[in-house]
Design brief:
Rossmann fold, four-stranded parallel beta sheet, 11 helices
Length: 292
Amino acid sequence: MLRSALAFLVLALFGDPAGAADQLNVVATFSILGDLVTNVGGERVNVTALVAPNGDAHVYAPTPADSKKLAAAAIVFSNGLGFEGWIDRLVKASGTKAATVVASKGVKPRTEDDDHGKIDPHAWQSVANAKIYVGNIRDALIKADPPGKDAYDANAKAYLAKLDALETDVKKAIDSIPRERRKIITTHDAFGYFGATYGMEFIAPQGVSTDAEASARDIAKIITQIKRQKVPAVFLENVTDDRLLRQIAAESGAKIGGKVYSDALSDAGGLAATYIDMIRNNIRQFTAALVS
C-alpha cells in the first residue's frame, strides 16, 4: 500500500515517465521545418531541429552531437531541393536506421535563371507549398506510428485550416500594395516562391544560397536596376550579414524596411517564433514599407 501511495505521488509530481518515453523521436533539419512537424505531431512526438532559430542551414556544419541525435531518431525530416547540402553525409555518418523523409516532395521546383538554373530550395515561403509539407509530414508520422493516425490526421486538419486563413490574409495584404510598388530587394533569393505565388518581384545580390558572394559587378547591376525600376525598399534578413544590403540602400536611395525571416525562425520570444508568425511578420514588414 505504501508502494502504491509513493507511485501515485511520483506520478502526481512528475507526470508519467512512460508517456514521455512513448513519444516518437523526430529530427528536422532546421527550425521552420521543425515547427511544421511539431504542429502535425503534437504531443506524440519529440522534435529536435538541428539548425537552431536564427541559424543558417546553407552553411551549417554538423557536429558529433548531431550524429547522436540522428542515431536516436525514428524519422529524419529534411527540406530537400538541395537546401541541406550536408544532410546525406550526416545520415551516413550517423549510422541511423531512421526513415528519411523529404518534406518538399510533390512541390514544383522553381529555378533561378540568374543563378545558372540552380533550383531554389525555399519552397516553404509559399503557404500553398507549406500545405504540401504538412501532408508529407502527416503521412510519414502515420507510417512510423500507426496507432497515432487519428491524432496526426486531426492535427494536420486543424493546422491546414490555420494555413488557409493565413494565405487568405497574405493575399489581402498583397492586394493593398500598389502593383507598381511590389518590388523588393533582399540579401539572398529566398522569397522566389512567395513572389511567384503572390505576385511580387524579389531581387537579390547573392542568388539562392547565402554561401555565394556577390561580385562588384552584380552589386552595381542591382543598384542600377533599383534606380531604373524605382524599387522602393530593401529588407534585411535574420540569417545574413546586413552590411551589403545597407551599402546597396545607401548607394541606390532605396528605403531600408524591417527585418524579415527567410531560412530560420526567430527565438521563442521573437517576432517569428513559428512558421505562421514568420509569414505574418514578413507580410507586415512588406506592406509597411510598400503601401504608399
